[in-house]
Design goal:
The structure is a single chain. By secondary structure, the protein is of the alpha+beta class. The protein folds into 3 domains: about 210 residues, FAD/NAD(P)-binding domain; about 90 residues, D-Amino Acid Oxidase, Chain A, domain 2, CATH 3.30.9; about 100 residues, Glutaredoxin (3-Layer(aba) Sandwich), CATH 3.40.30.120. It is built from 13 helices and 24 strands. Strands 1, 2, 8, 9, 10, 11, 17 and 18 form an 8-stranded mixed sheet that branches. Strands 6-5-13-14-15-12-16-19 form an 8-stranded mixed sheet. Strands 21-22-20-23-24 form a 5-stranded mixed sheet.
């Protein structure tokens, strides 16, 4: 199989900035051309914010790495114009099975409200995702968008100032200096930016080690997530099997603590483990192997002066539940519109505090769920293991015990209950769409709801009257007028009205609900827009 990451996608080219007599100031610099950095750059550039991405590499990652992308991140990518490519290249799935030893004890189906545009999850190798994002950026550049990737540009030093950041960048042709109004660090769990600024990364470190193997094979396994507790082919440990595109299968095998990582990665040690799992007569090709351990931790603050942290640079969780990349993409979604308002003078710099408040709440929620899953999968005491095994035994025959089986609560978007940008609820409608919640999708006579929201403030009216638009402190909210008759499936009514005859929603550019009530009230929604932009 030819790997798409063997040649540079954003090879080094000398920039005019390297020859400037004084350091060039950019509105936004992003460190890291991974999924979070590239997504943030695309979002900002589509809003008209000039952005430069710096990376010490010049190509996408090796190995599958992050592979599970949930519905909400796919909806974010739809808004950025590259969601369909993800779905076209990926494999959609919604079902999974959990095994204890050699028998299936629990299965699940993540398919929720019908009519949503995107599936519950797709599996897609991270290197393909990154390539699609780079291709999107190239297409934007061809149309004149203010976006650039600089490969082999390694940030070596950072200086924080009151109104900007200074960085020293090393290249194959020497170093140069840049300035930025805002610097966004998307440089991963070992973030050099965090290290250079001397910022702590606190949390719980887990000593277990896991083997990841990408295996190319023809297999009849269904497109489902399969997880084993104490399987006969890996006694006393756990295992995970996922299908990826191009007949690549992702296998995770728990190895336990105190191992020789380099020894365990050797093919002569990996292949017997895989044969024990797959069967001696199954033909496969080993494409990529890695050993990982993990921690559940986060920075105390995600914003430090003019430097903002996103993705694994800001928070890290265990891989159980596919919360890492999915959470990072939601960081980008939360951050970009706020930075755009600040840079265009339509919001105060203090609006950036809400990025920390909202995404730290999401990180805490992810860490809580991730830690609980890890403790269930890898019990730390004899009593914990006894309790876990009792739950597994009961789950095989007793339905009440199945929700207690925790092989990784899968990624869901956070509701911002503590956000200062959210107005008090003024509609006795469904809890699913209370202020602070992400908008759920709904089928319409023409298209889907989320596609009509875009990346702007929207006044969504459902069987209610309101002006076509209103403006407050330089920020405009445009009306999207709908009726329950626009959705014969009644999904729109169930999710946004419930038993209420009408409703009006103020929706943020990241498609989160800022306010709602049963009718349009000019004073109320103007105050809600001021609050949503950090002015009240």
């Amino acid at each position: 199989m030819t790997k798409i990451f063997e040649s540079p996608l954003y090879a080094y080219h000398r920039s005019p900035d390297q020859d400037a007599a004084v350091p060039v100031r950019h509105p936004v610099l992003i460190i890291g051309a991974g999924p979070v950095g590239l997504t943030t750059a695309i979002d900002l550039a589509q809003l008209g914010v000039p952005v430069v991405v710096l990376d010490d590499n010049d190509r996408v990652v090796t190995g599958s790495r992050a592979i599970c992308f949930a519905k909400r991140p796919l909806e974010i990518l739809d808004r950025l114009g590259c969601g369909q490519q993800m779905v076209d290249h990926g494999i959609g799935w919604s079902r999974g099975k959990v095994f204890s030893r050699d028998r299936a004890i629990y299965d699940f189906n993540l398919t929720d409200t019908p009519g949503h545009k995107r599936p519950a999850f797709i599996n897609l190798q991270q290197y393909t995702f990154e390539r699609l994002l780079v291709e999107k950026i190239r297409a934007m550049q061809a149309e004149g968008a203010p976006i650039e990737i600089r490969g082999c540009n390694k940030v070596e030093a950072i200086g924080q100032h009151y109104d900007h950041v200074t960085i020293e960048v090393d290249t194959p042709e020497g170093s140069y200096t840049l300035e930025a109004d805002w610097l966004i660090a998307c440089d991963g769990a070992r973030s050099p930016t965090r290290r250079m600024l001397g910022i702590a990364f606190d949390g719980e470190v887990f000593e277990d080690n896991f083997l990841i193997a990408d295996v190319v094979m023809q297999a009849n396994f269904p497109t489902e997530r399969w997880f084993w507790f104490d399987p006969p082919f890996n006694p006393g440990q756990s295992a995970l099997l996922h299908k990826q595109p191009e007949n690549v299968w992702r296998i995770d095998l728990q190895l336990g603590p105190d191992i020789d990582k380099e020894r365990e990665k050797r093919p002569e040690n990996v292949i017997p483990r895989l044969k024990a799992m797959l069967g001696e007569h199954v033909e496969f090709k080993l494409e990529w192997v890695s050993i990982y351990s993990f921690q559940c931790c986060r920075m105390e603050r995600f914003v430090h002066g003019r430097t903002i942290f996103a993705g694994d640079a800001a928070h890290q969780v265990s891989p159980f539940g596919a919360r890492g990349a999915n959470s990072g993409l939601q960081d980008a979604d939360n951050l970009s519109w706020k930075l755009h308002l600040i840079l265009t003078g339509k919001a105060p710099n203090s609006l950036m505090e809400s990025y920390h408040t909202e995404r730290a709440e999401a990180a805490d929620e992810n860490i809580l769920n991730s830690t609980r899953a890890t403790e269930f999968i890898t019990p730390k005491s004899d009593m914990s293991r006894l309790l876990r095994d009792a739950v597994l035994d009961l789950a095989a025959d007793q339905e009440f015990a199945r929700p207690l089986v925790n092989s990784g609560r899968l990624s869901t978007p956070c509701t911002y209950r503590n956000s200062p940008l959210i107005s008090a609820d003024a509609l006795a409608g469904p809890a699913l769409t209370c202020p602070g919640s992400p908008c759920p999708d709904a089928p319409l006579s023409e298209g889907h709801l989320l596609d009509k929201l875009g990346n702007r403030f929207i006044l969504l009216t459902i069987d209610a009257e309101a002006p076509d638009a209103f403006e407050e402190c330089g920020v405009r909210a445009e009306r999207l007028a709908l009726s329950v008759r626009d959705d014969p499936s009644l999904t729109l009514k169930r999710q946004y009205l419930g038993d209420c005859p009408a409703g009006v929603y103020l929706i943020r550019p990241d498609q989160y609900i800022a306010a709602r009530r049963d009718s349009y009230d000019d004073r109320h929604f103007r105050a809600a827009l001021r609050r949503a932009t950090g002015k009240e």
